[in-house]
Amino acid sequence: SIKIAEAAKVIENTQRDLNIALVNELSIICNLLDIDTLDVLKAAETKWNFHSYRPGLVGGHCIGVDPYYLTYKAQQLGYLPEVVLSGRKINDGMAKWVVEQVILEMCRKDISLKSASILILGFTFKENCPDIRNTKVLEIINILNEYKVDIDVVDPWADKLSVMKKYKIEIFDSFIKGKKYSVVISSVAHREFHDLKLNEWKSLVEENGILFDLKGLIPRELNPLRI
């Protein structure tokens, strides 16, 4: 029936949202424990029945939206779905948490906010896809803009005109030649970023700069911060 089909779709995306929320919460705890989340997950994957998910931003028009349809309908019927809403709260808060970690590391390295330049790699809501609907990278940009820092966004997949028209944000499809940044944030795992070599990563960041890796892209030799 239509009801079964719609419920199945909503529940499928809600389940994925909750699984990502779990690893996002674990990433916050691992950060407090000063251990690498992705290393922990890699070790956990050696157990045969471990379900593998990765922390990160949850946007798009399905996973980040469907749980709200479910909770809205449930509340209409007098039921408050606490687990679903808790997962949404965690995932919706990840952009703010990422910016907080960037600002903290800038303070540790005595990088001035007033003179800082930040490069964000990726704008679409997922890798190798031009879809910009409900992208959570936008939240990172909006929060950083409150600090009046200089921000460049590079995304070879997103349509520049669409981003400018909808969000009033200028994006580039390739790096600005010779420009180095105080902070580089890898936010979307486009194949073009996967293919970057060690020296190319080095060429993007200033000597005392920060590499913040949300997608496990940046070579470990460069000691990036990782989500």
Can you tell me about this structure?
It is a single chain. By secondary structure, this protein is of the alpha/beta class. Helices cover about 45% and strands about 10% of the residues. The protein contains 9 helices and 5 strands, in the order αααααβαβαβααββ. The protein has helices spanning about 1-35, 35-45, 65-75, 80-90, 95-110, 135-145, 160-165, 190-195, 200-205; strands spanning about 115-120, 150-155, 180-185, 205-215, 225. It has a 5-stranded parallel beta sheet. Helix 1 (about 1-35) packs across helix 3 and helix 1 packs across helix 4 (about 80-90). The radius of gyration is 19 Å and the shape is globular. The N and C termini lie far apart (about 40 Å). The mean pLDDT is about 95.
Name the strands of the widest sheet in spatial order: 2-1-3-4-5
**Helix count, per DSSP?**
9
Arithmetic mean of pLDDT:
96
Total strands: the figure is 5
Helix content: 40-55%
Summarize the main sheet.
5 strands, parallel
Class per helix and strand makeup: alpha/beta
Beta-strand level of the residues, as a percent range? 5-15%
Task: Indicate the low-confidence ranges by residue numbers.
Answer: none
Whole-number radius of gyration?
19 Å
Q: How do the SSEs run, as a string of H and E?
A: HHHHHEHEHEHHEE
- Termini separation comes to 41 Å
- Structural shape: globular
